[in-house]
């Protein structure tokens, strides 16, 4: 699986603060045996986020784009809005699962506005800006990512992992 990681932070983009979340996510991706095909840092700018997500998704080079940062309540936290502006279909189950799991760790999970969705055959997932939060949320969705990508790529083997239907007697 080929994964791109986009860090969204004004301060990291300007070089005022090191990007810790992007590298932490890259390590977690590689531990799964997946490739980190590209990484970048962009400021919290709607047009730049949309342009990067659109270009990466439309390139066909990536199965998944992970974003880190810009999902909170701060005025410049606009990653979910940019993501929703360019995706074709939302994937709310991923967002719900991440928030539910995070809520068991911190009440601040209620402040997450992270979104996820599909553009073409690429899955885009917003993750928190902290290294710990980004990796914890990534690990929540890891169990379904391979199957999600099989479904998006219309892999004929994608249905093999489904359980047999249950007979419901009247």
Question: What do these coordinates show?
Answer:
By secondary structure, this protein is α/β, with parallel strands linked by helices. Helices cover about 40% and strands about 20% of the residues. The protein has helices at about 10-15, 20-30, 45-60, 80-85, 90-105, 130-150; strands spanning about 1-10, 35-40, 65-70, 90, 115-120, 120-125. It has a six-stranded mixed β-sheet with strand order 2-1-3-6-5-4, sandwiched between helices. Helix 3 (about 45-60) packs across helix 4 and helix 5 (about 90-105) packs antiparallel against helix 6 (about 130-150). The chain starts with a strand and ends in an 18-residue tail after the last helix.
| Backbone shape | globular
The helix/strand series, from N terminus to C terminus, equals EHHEHEHEHEEH
When the domains are counted, the total is 1
How many beta-strand elements?
A: 6
The CATH architecture: 3-Layer(aba) Sandwich
Going by helix content, strand content and strand pairing, the class is alpha/beta
Side by side, the strands of the main sheet go: 2-1-3-6-5-4
Count of separate DSSP helical elements: 6
Strand content: 15-25%
Mind telling me the CATH class?
Alpha Beta
Instruction: Tell me the span between the first and last alpha carbons.
Output: 44 Å
Rg over CA atoms: 16 Å
Helix content: 40-55%
Question: What value does the average pLDDT take?
Answer: 95
Taking the sheet with the most strands, its summary is:
6 strands, mixed
Question: pLDDT under 50 segments (min length 5)?
Answer: none
Which fold name fills CATH's third level, the topology? Molybdenum Cofactor Biosythetic Enzyme, Chain A
What is the CATH superfamily?
MoaB/Mog-like domain
